[in-house]
Design brief:
Rossmann fold; 3 helices; single chain; alpha+beta; about 130 residues; 3-stranded mixed β-sheet
Length: about 130
């Protein structure tokens, strides 16, 4: 397991000049290092500030733990994201809302993805019509 400084990544993205920055965190939100001297954020991954034009998508909401895939398979979040990303004409905000609906349905309401964003100017698509 390797740690990545998410704030450093966000700063690099902010400095890139890109109009849209997307961070996707498909992590369980529990602390795998608990009890090893590292600060525990309580419910797992801490919320991050989203610089202008940034969308941060978490696999589940604060205080909850996301499900892993069955027997080494993809997680419900990853499967929903893969399905939604290939839908033509769905803008990025609609896409992540659809991911949330798909995960909520797949987990019978036990997991609900969480999105943090700053104002996003314009429309952005993974696949255009």
């Amino acid at each position: 397991m390797q740690l990545v400084d998410a704030n450093m990544v966000l700063h690099q993205m902010e400095d890139s000049g890109a109009k849209l920055k997307v961070v996707i965190l498909d992590a369980c939100r529990n602390n795998p290092f608990g009890g090893r001297g590292l600060r525990d954020a309580g419910g797992g991954l801490a919320q991050m500030r989203a610089p202008e034009g940034t969308l941060i998508s978490y696999a589940t909401q604060p205080g909850n733990i996301a499900r892993d895939g069955e027997a080494g398979g993809d997680s419900p979040y990853t499967m929903a994201l893969a399905e939604a990303m290939v839908t033509p004409g769905m803008d990025v905000l609609e896409l992540f809302n659809q991911v949330g609906v798909l995960v909520d349905n797949a987990t019978e309401g036990q997991q609900q993805p969480w999105v943090a964003s700053s104002p996003i100017k314009g429309k952005f698509y993974f696949v255009v019509k």
